[in-house]
Write a structure and sequence with these properties.
Its cofactor is FAD. The protein is an alpha/beta fold. The chain has eleven helices and eleven strands. 36% of the residues are buried. The protein binds flavin-adenine dinucleotide (FAD).
């Protein structure tokens, strides 16, 4: 079932969903699946699974030279989607990224997803390589999410990259990312919004936002999207503050503002357990207001921990 169909069927009731990150290469998958099992109590109709690009590592050789090797540190997105569907009877939403893939490799992966019966994909450009700092497309790959959306749309029409004859169409419902506090590379808010609109015109059927801690940022974003003629559902992405360190780390990584009130509350805490509790209370307050506003889904970035998301969900559902 498509994410948009879940939203339609909910008839205005706010749904609960989560995003998970594949484990580091070589770690046990059951640990990840066990960690989200308690959250199934809140009946997420779909679960997102992130995708991570290759990173180049420098491996010293016996001859003294250094070999540069591309490695995917968190492989397994497609397999995890299959396990999720089987174990929890939820729809899986794999993230599909431009970075690190040629168009042909992407086409093959989309077939894997299609053969598994997956009808959803969150289409992203992907983060820049850590070592490079700026995004570079792989030769023969896409540079922007909007280009990848066009490829998926073509497959949904039975058009493949190098085949003359029509293929069996895929049936992907396409989601994309949106940034209430602007994407960090965009020159200004309005250009960022115009590119978001381009993604919707290319075929995106819903938007999931970057995390934010100040609901006003989300409300303004929705207002600006609607004024720009973007009418698709806008799902808020949420992450509970969990450590004092995150007060500075999250703004740095995700380019967001921490509200002063939350900072002050967290700074009063003597331990990270107390900060976690502040994060839970803030999350509950945020979610109640978002439900009141009429958001279609509350989408949580679990980042490998689910106890605080659990407590927030208990507080609001
Ligand atoms: P795009 O929409 O392609 O935009 C990238 C930048 O280019 C923006 O500044 C935009 O304004 C600009 N732009 C867009 N189109 C054009 C154009 N045609 N011409 C010029 N400029 C343009 N990263 C991962 O690696 N894996 C994941 O699984 C993942 N999941 C995510 C999930 C969510 C909900 C969110 C919000 C982000 C996720 N990310 C993930 C991070 C994301 O890949 C990065 O934020 C990335 O830097 C931008 O991706 P995008 O799809 O928004 O890019």
């Amino acid at each position: 079932t498509k994410v948009t169909e879940h939203i339609q069927r909910s008839e205005g009731q706010t749904l609960f969903s989560i995003e998970i990150i594949p484990p580091l290469k070589g770690q046990n998958i059951n640990q990840l699946l066990d960690s989200i099992e308690p959250l199934m109590e809140f009946k997420p109709p779909f679960v997102d699974v992130t995708y991570h690009r290759e990173e180049v590592i420098d491996k010293p050789q016996p001859n003294g030279l250094v070999q540069r090797i591309p490695v995917r540190k968190r492989p397994g997105t497609v397999g995890i989607c299959a396990r999720l569907m089987e174990r929890f009877k939820v729809d899986a939403v794999p993230h599909v990224i431009c970075g690190g893939f040629t168009k042909e490799e992407t086409e093959d992966m989309l077939f894997d997803l299609h053969y598994l019966g997956i009808d959803n994909a969150l289409i992203l450009r992907g983060d820049p390589e850590k070592s490079a700092g700026v995004f570079r497309a792989k030769t023969g790959g896409h540079a922007y999410a909007s280009e990848l959306i066009s490829q998926v749309r073509d497959m949904n029409r039975g058009v493949l990259l190098h085949e003359e004859t029509e293929a069996t169409p895929t049936n992907f419902c396409i989601g994309v990312a949106g940034y209430p506090e602007k994407h960090f590379e965009a020159a200004n808010y309005d250009t960022d919004l115009s590119y978001l609109k381009k993604k919707v015109e290319a075929g995106a059927e819903y938007i999931v936002t970057q995390m934010f801690f100040d609901n006003q940022k989300y409300f303004q974003f929705v207002e600006r999207c609607r004024a720009a003629g973007i009418t698709v559902p806008i799902i808020p992405g949420l992450k509970p503050l969990a450590t004092r360190n995150q007060l500075t780390v999250l703004p740095r990584i995700f380019h967001l503002d921490m509200p002063q009130e939350l900072v002050q509350e967290a700074e009063k805490c003597a331990t990270n357990d107390q900060v976690r509790q502040v994060g839970i209370e803030w999350g509950i307050k945020q979610c109640k207001e978002l439900i009141e506003f009429g958001v279609p889904v509350l989408h949580f970035y679990t980042m490998g921990k689910s106890d605080n998301v659990m407590q927030i969900a208990r507080g609001v559902f």
